[in-house]
Amino acid sequence: MCYDDNARPPEPPKKNGKARGEDIALTAEDGNRFAAYIAHPEHPSGPQALILPDIRGLHQFYKELALRFAEVGITALAIDYFGRTAGISSRAEPFEFMPHVQKLRLSTLIQDIRAALTYLRTNTGADQPVFMVGFCLGGTLSYMTGTHDLGLTGVIGFYAGISRDFGSGKKLLDVAEQIRYPSLGLFGGADQGIPVNAVHTLDEKLSKAGFEHEVVIYPGAPHGFFDRRSADFAEASADAWRRVLGFIQAHSSAAH
C-alpha cells in the first residue's frame, strides 16, 4: 500500500489562491459509474491534471493532492478505479482493495480515463494542456496512457511499478518504447518493490521512444516518500514538487 489514511501530500512551493473541491461521479462509455473528485483553482493558470491514485483507489490523500494542485492554479481531477466491482462507496480504510485490483483491466481503465478527460475538457477548457499524474499503480497507468491517443500534453509517474500489466499481458518495460508524450518519472532509490536497475532500463527504453523524458531517482528514499509525514525526505518531496510543476509549466508553454 502506497499511502494510509493518515498520509497527506506535501505543500507545494508557492500557492497563488484558494481551491474548491467536490465529490462527483463520472460515467464511462460502457456505462460504468465511478467516483471522482474535482478541485477548482481560484485563479486558473490553464493546465489540468488527471490524478491516478495508488492501489487503494480514490482516498483522502488524492483529494487533498487535487486541492494542492488547484492552489497553484492547476485544475485537478482524481479518479477511482473500482466502480465496476465495488461501486462508488468510500475508499477509506479498511477497504479490501486487492480483490478489486486483481480484476482491473487496462481496456476498461482507459475507458474511465477517457470519460475523465471528457469531463475536464467539457467543463474546464477543451484546449487546455492535460497531464497525467499517477502514483504506484497509478504511476504505471500514467505511463501506459502515454501509449494511447488521448491528446495528452505529458505523463508523470511517481514510483511506477515495473511489473504490473493490468491483464494486458504487457508490462511497462514492454510498452515504454511506444510512449508518445513527454514524461517525468520520480522514484525512490530505496524502494524495495522497484529495483533501481529496472528504473534505469525504463530510462533507456524511454530514450528509444524519442520523446523528451526525465527519470529521477532519490537516493535513500522509500516507496511513498512524497508524504508530509516523511520529514527525513522533505527535501526529496520539495524537489519532486518543483520538478512536477516545472514539467507542467514548460510543456504547457510549448503546447501553445
TrEMBL record:
Residues 1-20 are annotated as: Disordered. SUPFAM superfamilies: alpha/beta-Hydrolases (SSF53474). Keywords: Hydrolase. Gene3D superfamilies: alpha/beta hydrolase. One of its GO terms (molecular function) is hydrolase activity. Residues 34-251 form the Dienelactone hydrolase domain. This is Dienelactone hydrolase family protein. It comes from Ktedonosporobacter rubrisoli. The lineage of its organism: Bacteria, Bacillati, Chloroflexota, Ktedonobacteria, Ktedonobacterales.
